[in-house]
Amino acid sequence: MRFLEEHGDRAKDCLFATAPDVVGDARATMLRSAPFLPEIRRRGYPVALVGQNGLEDLAVPWDTFDVLFLGGDTEWKLGDHARALTAEARRRSKWVHMGRVNSLKRLRYAASIGCQSADGTYVAFGPDVNLPKCLEWVRKVNAEGSQLVVEAA
User: What's CA 141's distance to the chain center, in Å?
Assistant: First the structure.
């Protein structure tokens, strides 16, 4: 929260700030993130809730966040539950972001289920070579009809 406070003048430039989560555990994520959601918003940032395994079994507090960030393990993230949550988020005019997208195949999948942005560590491992590749993936996916957002840090 201190980082968000110190960089509050840049809040309008951010797609979102993510509340703390617990990898693979939606129930624990909800408990952990609940106190942070209003605090992130109070600092002027769009609020992201990280969807984790089991979110489909909980009452999703849709009004407390702006962005659904698809986390969870690979099986969950690529499964029917994450797809259904993405559709519901989009129906509610929420932004949807997918994490751990490190290939053209995964980027195409994210776009196909309605994600509007994605991230991954691919570029960090050899940025001179991998950044141009990653940008080409985005161009290809967008040429196929998506409009993924690309943000350079």
Answer: 17
